[in-house]
Amino acid sequence: MSKGKIKNSIWLVLVDCIKIYFSNIDKFILYMLFPVLGQIIGLILAFGLGVGFADRIAEKATSMSNALLYVFLLTIPGLLIFVKAFWDYMVAYVALNSMTEGALTTCKVYDFQSHREVATRRAGKYILFLMAIGILSCIATFCCIIPVFGLIPPLILWIYFILVFQVFTFEQDLSIKEYFVKSMELVKGNWAKTFCLMIILGFFSIYIITMGVTVIFDYLNLTDITCSLFDIVGKSLPLEYINKALRYINQPVITVEMISKSIFTSIVGIIVAEFTLPVRSIAYTLWYMGLSDSKGNEIQNLEPNRPKKQRKTKKKTKTEDEDIE
């Protein structure tokens, strides 16, 4: 598919995205295994060891500070696994863009390490870039809570900044501020299309698959068994007092089963969202390439005829030379 077609239709972007993803699905799943499952395993290990041995440590420890120290030491292995997996997942935001470019040129996805190096060889700058995104995300969340701002302004800016990872990947000489500025320049004039692309990708790659997984669990009668693992969270909450307040305002009460089901659905949604990151990265990379090509052509069309300018400059220089003589 030509870039000229990409810039005019999000549907062609989605079609090419599906082709690239499913023709390399085994490689993408393999690449995402540790970044996704490593985070889950790390948290389970840290939480399990810390909470599981907390009572025994409290009985044998000579002081509260020693008990807390021992619990913290038990959580370190799990936390290290989580941090490594989380870093690999953030690197994937850049590596997958590079893989998409490789898939377009060679029709194959291979040599994961070389694609990872697009981010890791600029690790310091990438960390600062991620911190900038984190700060902006916190500001956007804060604005959503304040009634004066609401959800609309943060959403508008979010769409304008949605291509920052692609800009970071392919335009490495820019500063951190310029990554955001360039993303805004690309999306400008294509905000509605970019918004529709985001909605479609989120709906099909996250919502539909998440619902599909929960339906499969229900069909295999695994939902209740899995949800029971999270009952400890609901039982630790003062639901009696919470439900008393809810009854007072004529609202439905909250049960332990409801909380466990909500946690289960959220975890499935997170896992699905992380495993389907390649789909969204591919689509946004194709969209970035199309918009970059489109904006580049617009700039070239607006430029004056350069040869005429050069001739005028030469004549002027010749006259100045005669005056000097």
How would you summarize the topology of this molecule?
Layout: H1 3-6, H2 10-23, H3 25-52, H4 54-60, H5 64-106, H6 112-120, H7 123-145, H8 152-160, H9 164-170, H10 176-187, H11 191-219, H12 223-227, H13 231-235, H14 239-248, H15 256-275, H16 277-302, H17 306-324
Helix pairs in contact: 2-16, 3-5, 4-5, 5-6, 5-9, 5-16, 7-8, 9-10, 11-15, 11-16
Evaluate the radius of gyration. Answer: 26 Å
Q: Class by helix and strand content?
A: mainly alpha
Weakly predicted, low-confidence segments: 1-6, 308-325
Distance between the termini: 59 Å
What does this protein look like?
The chain is an all-alpha fold and 325 residues long. It contains 17 helices and no strands. It is globular and about 75 Å long. It starts with a helix and ends with a helix.
Features:
325 residues, mainly alpha, 17 helices, globular, disordered N terminus, disordered C terminus
Short description:
The protein is mainly alpha-helical and 325 residues long. The chain is built from 17 helices and no strands. It is globular and about 75 Å long.
